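User: Quick sanity check before I run a bigger batch. Here is a single chain. Can you write out its predicted 3D structure?
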Amino acid sequence: MRNTYLSCLIFMGLLNGIGQNALATDYYVHPTLGSDTNTGTSKSSPIQTLTKASSLPLQSGDRLLLADGQTFVGSLRCPGWQGSAGQPIVIESVSWQNTAGFKPALIDAKNEAEGILLLDCSHVYVRNVAITANGYTTRNPQQAMRVGVLVTTEKAKKVVDIRLEKLNIADVFYENPGVVRTAEEVKSPNGTQKYGWGIRLINSVEAAVMENIRIADCVVQNVSHTGIKLTGKNQNIQRVDITGNRVQRSGGPGIQMSGVKFVYVGRNEVKYSGSTDDGRKWGRGSGLWTWGASQVLIEKNSFMYANGPGDSAGAHIDYNCDNVVMQYNFSAHNAGGFCEILGNNYNCAYRYNISVDDGHRIKGENGAFQEGKIFWLSGYQGNQRERKGPINSYFYNNTIYTSPGKVGRLAIDNGSQGVLIANNIFYVPAGLKSVQGDQLKPDESEGLGLERVLFTHNLYLKADCWPTDAIIQDRGAQVGDPKFSKPGSLNPADYLPKNRQAVRAKGIAIPYLESDTFGLMQGLKMNTDFMGNPVPDTPGLGAIEVGEME
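Assistant: Done. Predicted structure follows.
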């Protein structure tokens, strides 16, 4: 599935091997053995500072090599560096007779706006570098924020082929320790004060295009706002691959993207987004969320322990999106919930995911201004616009578990148009409860009138699980215990149903909703389940298929 999608993005060609220009130059940097009067073209004659390194006239195939195990104070600012296809400029750590073993060079960007700035650059690869930026010794009020790595545009019409790989970014804060955010700050849409961010892509030049970007195998932890954030304008950030990263204890969301198109997000681990373990953190954030995004595939990720008084789901789809698909993800203990699809969204889906104890937040407790919800469809599309949609929401073959005593909440806007809920397992011992949507105005249930609903063939632990006052009702509900081997476990394999009779071939082949001619970008039929097992023509219930008897 992933290879098919990336081929559509015309991305795989950029992932091939890299040649080496015979005329390329290696520049060495060492903070104690170097001197800025040196040429820097050998280990015996390294330059010393990031300021000098920023002034080098790097060209296609050149490498900037930072001594491993060393700390570089300041910021590496790369103004308009241009490599070429197959001959990128590479910035990385290099072994320097370090007897303690290889350890990436560390950039300490305290006081600086960025640890590494790629401004109007193309064909530049940064890898095996660590970055920290914890507060300041001299405050600079002109700085808008502090970022580990910032990729942005100013004059270039096109920024292409940027790779950020195996970076370790930790402890990025604009403020010094001791600052405590106000209780009202966390209620603002994205915070009003200055924060630290892990990796940011910003393209505010509407006519410019930023594309073919890879963020892979990085660790981002303990930043005061978002771990990895993409901010485009009219979807002018395109063809982005975000894979294999670990984001932990971000004060805001783990991963967030706005104004993007053709994005693949796979095999990432996000834990403790919306962290409040430092007063400088924002204290609210989903593991991942999208806004104004198109053609985004989010699969095989783990989203756990998201915190916050609002939103803070494992992964949610904010308004103005189309064709955002969540599949094969493991979502657990996220305060805001599991599925959240807001207004003016078209053809979005949650399928073949596993949710464990999501949506435990209770409105009114500990400052919470929204209920946590397992399932939420909302027509909210901003304060200035009437509620609308979402349109054509597909929710199928998910496994949803809540611990005994925990009520599962749901909210469905009566403006939703096109809703498919099928083949899911709702293992909710305490039952589900219908609540209001909480997004500025309640989701009124007067004059029901939802259009184009297919709600059938879902398994419930007991007959009265789905609330009778919910705006839609399951027309083909099934009741039974799937008999998971270890309910409540954080091991996805423990949600393989042992009760074959309750789940095997009990689902339906997922059809297009009435009047929907598009469906989902990879099609509605899935070839494999959460664990990679084949899915038969008549699928089972839940995220994991039960095979034939041996």
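Residues 169 and 220 are 5 Å apart (CA to CA).

User: Great, the batch can go ahead then.
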